[in-house]
Design a protein that fits this description.
The chain is mostly helical. It is built from eight helices and seven strands; from the N terminus they run αβαββββαααβαβαα. It has helices at 2-23, 42-59, 101-107, 109-112, 123-138, 157-164, 179-188, 199-211, and strands at residues 32-33, 62-65, 68-70, 79-81, 98-100, 146-148, 170-172.
Length: 215
């Protein structure tokens, strides 16, 4: 019982300090900005972070710091490592306002960014549009009418059709996934946009490089 008497004040102290820290997380009236650290490994993610930090400062918005994404040998899934595992956050605040994504999601997101209103922007759609426009300008005889998508998860057919409909382009996939047939189609297509961390995309890229095809 004596141990319990000593322990309870310590627990109360931790709870009090934690609650006070949460109370200091006030809403930024200028808004927030974050980024997806999924385009590459640590070097690319660090470069992405630096660019986003400068962008957030330019917009005068608080930067939400997402976890680092680690791809470890022998593991099928990536690991989400909190930003402050490797770097102190407080020195960044001398340059501009930042907040850990975990703090933002736990203590601010429900009011600022309710789940029903959450929409993400996927860069691949903009990159796809840019590639199509470039082909139409440089290769007028190579008119693009359709886009083929290969994926082991979400093909985003509805989203891509909606994004490209104004360009007169339809988006398609195989009725059933067939990685060998998809590999052949992607290897011989006029243009190819791949995922830079995908070994499957790497196979396609090597084949296209050997044939002198653009990627």
């Amino acid at each position: 019982m004596q141990w319990l008497k000593l322990k309870f004040p310590f627990i109360y102290l931790i709870c009090t300090v934690t609650a006070a820290a949460w109370a200091n997380l006030e809403r930024d009236p200028n808004g927030y900005l974050t980024y997806c650290p999924c385009l590459g490994r640590f070097g690319n993610q660090a470069d992405h972070f630096l660019g986003s930090l400068a962008f957030a400062k330019g917009l005068n918005r608080t930067l939400i710091l997402p976890p680092w994404v680690e791809y470890r040998k022998g593991e099928m899934r990536s690991r989400q490592v909190p930003f402050n595992t490797y770097f102190d956050v407080d020195p960044l605040k001398d340059y501009h306002r930042v907040i850990l994504m975990s703090d933002f999601m736990w203590h601010l997101a429900d009011d600022i960014w309710p789940e029903s209103e959450r929409v993400s922007f996927c860069y691949i759609v903009r990159q796809l549009k840019r590639t199509i426009k470039n082909v139409r300008q440089t290769q007028p005889n190579n008119e693009i009418k359709s886009v083929f998508v290969a994926s082991d998860a979400n093909h985003m057919i509805g989203e891509l059709n909606a994004a490209l409909s104004r360009m007169g382009i339809s988006v398609h996939r195989l009725p059933e996934d067939d990685p060998y047939l998809e590999l052949a189609i992607l290897g011989q297509s006029n243009q190819f946009i791949g995922n830079c961390i995908s070994s499957y995309s790497a196979f396609v890229k090597r084949e296209r490089d050997s044939n002198g095809f653009p990627s």
